[in-house]
Design a protein that fits this description.
Distance between the termini: 52 Å
Number of helices: 8
Number of strands: 14
Strand order of the largest sheet: 10-9-8-13-11-14-12
Strand content: 15-25%
Structural class: alpha/beta
Amino acid sequence: MISADLPNSELLYGVAPVMAALKKGSREVYELYYRSNNIGDVFHGKVDEIFSMAKQQGVPIKHVSKETLVRAVDGNIHQGIVLKVSKIKDHTLLRFGQFKDGQYAIHTSEDMFVYESRRRYPLWVCLDRIQDQYNLGSIMRSALFFGADGIVIDYKEGCRPTPHVCKASAGAREYIPCFNSRNIVDLLSQAKQDGWKVISTSTRDAENGESATPGCLASLDSPAIVVLGNEGFGVREQIVSNSSVSVHIPVRADTPEMFDSLNVGVAAAIALSAIKFTGE
């Protein structure tokens, strides 16, 4: 039997998440489980690399049955490999610090972290009540790909990073810092006062403030936070009305009303791909 029986442990599954966890090295790794003849030829090279890394790190490797793996991950697609690891510690984000000389601070309920921006200016993604784990995983992957420094998640009304999210992110969850926020509205308001550009996404023109298509994001000259909203209701009006800019992705043809917006994971990729900072 395989289970997350250790305190603060969980089971990652799938080739990409397991490989990412072993490569990143930010978790404690307890055991690797696999089933032979259950991994397609396309993954064999990667699985060999996983075994090699696990052996180098002294991780016990156990061969188990198909049924054991299926039960361990509640029937999710595991690609024949599961890794028992420690959970990544949650941090509650209280405030974004001002950006100066290529650095800025992130203030949490327990500590302060100093960041160096991955791009010309800091870029973060803030999620307002995102509830679908596939969407969260997709957004994590896009955020990492387009150079975001981290993600803020509304744990109160949104889903949390789980092994399922890690699988949906293809392992990007291991590399993109994720923080919880107790009050996203206050967090963004304070960030705006401290010189951050708050960019909310919307399915329509905002009633207050500037509204534009993603093309307006091609010449930003300050730290930026992209806010993505709930799958059914979008970004809260309180956030949209207090944003520096509201961006909507225009429909290009006559479309039934029920399809007036894109999946939030797709919208995230489009918005993040449009961002370009001056000097890049």
